[in-house]
Specification:
- By secondary structure, the chain is an alpha/beta fold.
- It folds into 3 domains: about 5-175, Peroxisomal Thiolase, Chain A, domain 1 (3-Layer(aba) Sandwich); about 180-265 and about 305-330, Peroxisomal Thiolase, Chain A, domain 1, CATH 3.40.47; about 335-380, no CATH class.
- The chain is built from 12 helices and 13 strands.
- It has helices spanning about 20-25, 30-40, 55-65, 90-100, 115-130, 200-210, 220-240, 260-270, 280-285, 290-300, 335-355, 360-380; strands at about 5-15, 20, 45, 75-80, 105-110, 135-140, 160-170, 175-185, 190, 220, 250-255, 310-315, 320-330.
- The strands form 4 sheets. A 5-stranded mixed sheet has the order 1-7-6-4-5, with helices on both faces. Strands 8-13-12-11 form a 4-stranded mixed sheet, sandwiched between helices. The protein has a two-stranded antiparallel ribbon with strand order 2-3.
- α4 links the parallel β4 and β5.
- α3 packs across α4 (about 90-100), α7 (about 220-240) packs parallel to α8 and α7 (about 220-240) packs across α11.
Length: about 375
């Protein structure tokens, strides 16, 4: 019998402090009209002096555990996606484990803005293979600590936030159905912090780091844009087709919140109406590894996602990395009729998109084969 990793709990946390576009206009040469027109961002939340990545992660995790009806002691594993730890070491996940009072393994996954989707996929594997039953997956980021508040090109783009989900096993189709994880390290310097690692240790290069502002985030905006436009929509199409679906079958798209313009571009590429894309960038800006889970949690809270819905998520950024997935929220049934006319057609389109020659016979056999498969699965459940 198949074993799936179902999302059973969710929670979010954003700092109280809000930095508006007008506030930024008093700090650098910019204005609300320009920022809104080019990014869609109106404000962002910034951590207070006493807040850390671990404290924010805990604040997002507690409601997620409550919704899943679990205590921290019930957890088998904690995975935290994070690029802005409390310390260089230990990882923030270990501190989160202690602050929650959990008694399980914990590790931090550092993979830029794609980190949380990578973490979700990783957690799903542990559950699907039967190793663990209760896993907490957190995305938390304090980007503000690495932002150069004198650089108007980057300081307007980012905010701080945390969001978490709990995964538990299910016998019905749910959770991550298909996924794709990608990396192109040739673009590593498109978005990075030059100092602080082994290439340029702070203790040995303090003077030059200060002079060149190398302790702050550096970004090649055009390079990132080219990467996103050639990668994201194609990745989404692939995972959707692999799930036996088409973009029309997706109830809600949850993209990484980098730019409202870019999200509009993805909608055009997928030939989907913009209202099928959840957008909250205007409230939070780009919160890196917290971006996708924050949007997912808000979509659930607002009733945009309900049990049985199929959601497609995509994240991309530093690395360069990308990660896309199709997620079944709650438990959903796929009818034989849907399988015949939608899933079979999707498999046909997927093969054609991959350059595989599909003749007339295959075009008929693929849908029929899918129909038989789903009928057998339905009979087994009975």
């Amino acid at each position: 019998m198949s074993r799936y990793a179902r999302i059973t709990g969710w929670g979010k946390y954003v700092p109280d402090k809000v930095l508006t576009n007008d506030d930024l206009a008093e700090m650098v040469d910019t204005n609300d009209e320009w920022i809104t027109a080019h990014t869609g961002i109106k404000r962002r939340h910034i951590r207070s002096d006493h807040e850390t990545a671990s404290s924010m992660a805990v604040n997002a995790s507690r409601p997620a555990l409550e919704k899943a009806k679990l205590t921290p002691q019930d957890l088998d594993l904690i995975i935290v996606a994070n690029n802005s730890p409390d310390y260089i070491l230990p990882g923030v996940a270990n501190i989160v484990q202690d602050k929650l009072g959990a008694e399980c393994g914990a590790f931090t996954l550092v993979n830029g803005c794609s980190g949380w989707v990578y973490a979700l996929v990783t957690a799903s594997q542990f559950i699907q293979t039967g190793i663990y039953n209760n896993i907490l997956v957190v995305g938390v980021e304090i980007v503000s600590f690495a932002v150069d508040w004198e650089d108007r090109k980057t300081c307007v783009l980012f905010g701080d936030a945390a969001a978490a989900v709990v995964l538990q096993p299910s016998e019905e189709p749910s959770g991550v159905l298909t996924f794709e994880l990608g990396s192109d390290g040739s673009g590593a310097e498109y978005l990075y912090v030059p100092a602080g690692g082994t290439v340029k240790p702070i203790a040995l290069n303090a003077e030059s780091i200060t002079a060149n502002r190398d302790g702050f985030l550096k970004m090649n905006g055009q390079g990132l844009l080219r990467f996103a436009t050639r990668t994201v929509a194609k990745s989404l199409k692939r995972v959707i087709y692999q799930a036996g679906l088409t973009p029309d079958d997706i109830d809600l798209f949850i993209p990484h919140q980098t730019s409202a313009r870019l999200i509009e571009f993805f909608a055009r590429q997928l030939r989907q109406p913009l209202d099928k894309f959840f957008i909250n960038i205007h409230k939070y800006a780009n919160t890196s590894a917290a971006s996708v889970p924050l949007a997912l949690v808000e979509a659930i809270e607002e009733g945009r996602v309900k049990s049985g819905d199929t959601v497609a998520v995509i994240a991309f950024g530093a690395g360069l990395t990308w990660a896309s997935a199709v997620i079944q929220m709650g438990v959903g049934e796929i009818s034989p009729a849907h399988s015949l006319f939608s899933i079979g057609r999707a498999r046909y389109l997927a093969k054609r998109a991959q350059g595989v020659i599909v003749d007339t016979a295959q075009a008929v056999v693929l849908p029929l084969y899918t129909f038989v498969q789903v009928r057998r699965q339905a009979n087994r459940r009975k």
